[in-house]
Every structure is written in C-alpha cells, then in structure tokens.
Amino acid sequence: MHELTAARDLQLIAPRKVPGGNIGQRARQPTRLRAIAMLETFNNAFGPAMYAYRTRIERAFSRMASSRIGLDHLPPFVRTLPRVRLWIQSKIILYSLPQKQELYQ
Cα–Cα distance between 39 and 28 in angstroms, integer? Predict the structure, then answer.
C-alpha cells in the first residue's frame, strides 16, 4: 500500500500492528520507514496529528454512509458515472451544511 501511494506522490500514514516491533525484511520501503518515523518518533507531533485527522475523515464518511441523508444506495436514475459523481458531490455538500444534531445520531 505504501508503494502504491508513493507512486501517486502521496504519503500513507498508518500505524503498525505492533509499534516498536520488528519491521521485517520485505517492508523496508522508504515511504513506510518515513511513516513509522512520523508516528513513533518521540518529539514529532505532526504524524499523530495527521493520523488523528485521518480518523476524523473516516468517521465522517462512515456517518455519511449510515445516516438518513447518506450515501448508502443510489436511486434508479443515477446509474452512469457522471451522474454518480454529481450525486456523491451533492450528498457531500448537503452533509457538510449546518444541520440539526438529530441527523448525526
């Protein structure tokens, strides 16, 4: 996964299963080692802050997928790729508008 994100000039920030444990022989890509350093270096606050932001994004998408205004299923008229893109974009815009607290529960 680290190699795929690096191929797109991105950095994947994901914690290891066992922090501080052995890295292994096959998993020594520079981007993976950088992600480990970002998350496990004592005086680095950027990596954990970035990872916390990632989890907030994942929570927001999971709420969108499971709420009444969510992205759970498409209506019959939204079946081509351009229509799906417009549908998803409009749902994200509607979700980001200020709404009553009951929609988030």
Answer: 16
In this prediction, residue 8 has a pLDDT band, given cuts at 50, 70 and 90, of very high
Question: Does the pLDDT value for residue 70 go beyond 70?
Answer: no
Q: Check residue 23 and give its pLDDT.
A: 76
- Residue 42's pLDDT is 76
In this structure, the dihedral spanned by the alpha carbons of residues 9, 13, 16 and 21, taken in order and rounded to 10 degrees, is 80
Helix 46-66 vs helix 81-96: crossing angle, to nearest 10: 110
Identity of the highest mean pLDDT range in 46-50, 67-71, 74-78, 79-83: 79-83
CA dihedral 60, 20, 13, 95 (to 10 degrees): 0
Q: Among 46, 39, 34, which residue's Cα sits nearest to residue 10?
A: 34
Angstrom distance (rounded) from CA 61 to CA 55: 10
Using CA atoms of 42, 18, 1, 50 in order, give the dihedral in degrees to the nearest 10.
-30
